[in-house]
Amino acid sequence: MDNENQMLKLKRERLAKLIENGINPYPNKCKRTHKIVELRDNEKEFASGNQPVTITGRLVAMRRMGKIGFGDVSDESGNIQIVLKRETVGVENYDLFKLLNIGDFVQVDGYAFYTQTGEYSVNVEHITILNKSLRLLPAVKEKKVDGKVERFDVFADVELRYRKRYLDLLLNPDVRKTFETRAKIIRSMRKTLDDMNFIEVETPVLQPLYGGANARPFITHHNSLGIDLYLRIATELYLKRLVVGGIERVYEIGKNFRNEGIDSTHNPEFTALEAYQAYADYNDIMELSEQLIYNAVIAVHGKEVIEYDGEEINFARPWKRAGMIELIEEFSGFDASDFDLAELKAFCKEKEIETNPNWGVGKIIEELFEHFVEPKLVQPTFVTDFPLEVSPLAKKKPENPKLAERFEIFIAGNEFGNAFTELNDPLDQRKRLEAQAALRDLGDLEANVVDEDFIEALEYGMPPTGGLGIGIDRITMLLTDNTSIKEVILFPQMKPEQD
What we know:
Elements: H1 2-20, H2 36-41, H3 43-48, E1 52-65, E2 68-75, E3 78-85, H4 86-89, H5 91-98, E4 105-114, E5 120-131, E6 141-145, E7 148-152, H6 158-163, H7 165-171, H8 173-195, E8 199-200, E9 206-207, E10 219-222, E11 227-231, H9 236-244, E12 249-257, E13 269-278, H10 282-301, E14 305-308, E15 311-314, E16 320-323, H11 324-332, H12 341-350, H13 361-373, E17 381-387, E18 396-397, E19 400-411, E20 414-421, H14 426-441, H15 452-459, E21 465-471, H16 472-480
Parallel strand pairs: 3-5, 8-12, 16-17
Antiparallel strand pairs: 1-2, 1-4, 2-3, 4-5, 6-7, 9-11, 10-11, 12-13, 13-21, 14-15, 17-19, 18-19, 19-20, 20-21
Helix pairs in contact: 7-8, 8-10, 8-16, 11-13, 12-13, 14-15
């Protein structure tokens, strides 16, 4: 720690010396003619012609040997060595270099060349400080493996990586690749929807009443209006209002907020895509979902078969489709199709599956599915026909009114999307939401609330509509082979640091 304090003190002393010498350590302007990758990709061209180049980046290594100095400069595209000779840059500029530290940002003017040892570098004619760093970068360890330099133990403390993501990105190149992939996934999904004439919109984050999912909300207060507001838990009810208003194909990619626990697949603040298509049902939306995810897989990997958590996942279409009831019987041997509450409870007791006394048939069936089936759905699967009781915003199946026209997407044992043939009967919708409100009165704090404005909108008439929600964070986990949601969210929610 004493050595660290000495280094921090040295940085501030050098800052003071720069200012004393009339050098602005935080200038307003700089210039750059090339990224480092451009020099790397065209070595022979740049090294043979003394072509002037100006690069910018962070100093990640420094060493001096009398009248010559060396450093490594890094920008987002790569690293390159710089070489400063006092006779070339002049005494004042060389003295400036001596006041720099690892972590500082610089502008380097010069030309590319090969050193006597054959290392491709930039021969510096002038160096300018762009930003004086006042903190120490975590040490990076390197070792040679089979003739190649490998980095190890690079900022490996997982919790510290999430809390100080800027250092994580700086020191762990693969982390940046994860978020580049995330952006590619979103671009792919946008393109798929835009090409199908969907309109992207934005709906309120602050809502007077939350809805569209089973979740507890975050509550805030608007001082001027003197009312409580809720951070949205879903975009569904506002997007369906837009379908009522005549926008037949609509989608939104945005943040939702749910006041829930944190684990490997849940973060209180997460990103979701929701899309609604008029004159469609859940079969049409299965086709849409398949297309969205398949296109994203190809955009990222360029092939249909990828590896996730040691498993090969094949996205070749069409994907398997199976009903929830039939899957429960397949994996547990229990036939739940009679919807007999007593039999369901007895089976759960036999299998030591905990249930809540207030749970109805639908909730217990859903619990059986999660227990027996969900972890075993490795290949892409549409699980269809959920109990109506746990699907308050979906239409009944005409041939079996105990079930809803709803599906969820399961891959590698995890859920990635949820979709319905949307309920557009305002009278039925009211009954369903009132039943949800009754569950809230019994203590289910995740049950839906009655949204009178939404029901009024349905009373004006909404055409037959299919709707879809896909978790962007989970899709990113899948396509970057990460098993923790915190790896794919730049700034995940963390517990307060202990003193």
